Amino acid sequence: MVTMIPRPAAPGTAEAIRRPRQKRSQQRFEAILDSADRLLETLEPEAISIYTLAEEAGLSAPSIYHFFPDAGQVFVALSERYTRQFVELLDKPLPPGVTTWQAFFAARYGHGRDHYNAHGAARRLLLGSGLSASIRARDLENDSVLAERSMAEFCQLFDVAPSADLVERFTELLVINDAIWTLSVHRHGAITDAYEEQARLAREAYARTFLPEHLPLRAAAEQAA
Fold it and tell me: Domains of the chain, with CATH numbers?
């Protein structure tokens, strides 16, 4: 079970969503998100309305308005679901032989790239050129959630102390990476090998501004101590 870190909602975004508490309402809420996810496989967000969602979900429009004031807020909630999925990717075991921070980032961002390339709806919503301001604001907040989880794992593996400053650096790393992936999706519809290589170079170049080139493993450092 992945626990999302509570954060204040960005103005004009998630606070407009009526979050269900009862099981039946939660099921309807999730069904609406499922419908949005299916529609995004073939449609841009701006082409999807409350009525499009209602038809896809087999619900009445008022049933959707009960939770969301407009389709944009459905996508805000869906972006939160996608973030949970990306956080869950951090539970996947690292490949054998990860002993450097360069290999760590390559492995974890590789998992993210594979997930994006396999899920067109997430790719279209979070990396698409038609990204709305509300989705962008929520996505940047979600990057901080991913950065916190990533930093926690990183500090367990390598001999470096966790800090709020390091979370901020990891957040910036995500934003830099996503900018290059977004360009790849805009031009090619997916994150290509060539653009992933450019993203890797950018990640490592920026990481060198706050990490040494060689960072000892925590287990090795503890053994030496």
Answer: 14-74 (1.10.10.60), 79-224 (1.10.357)
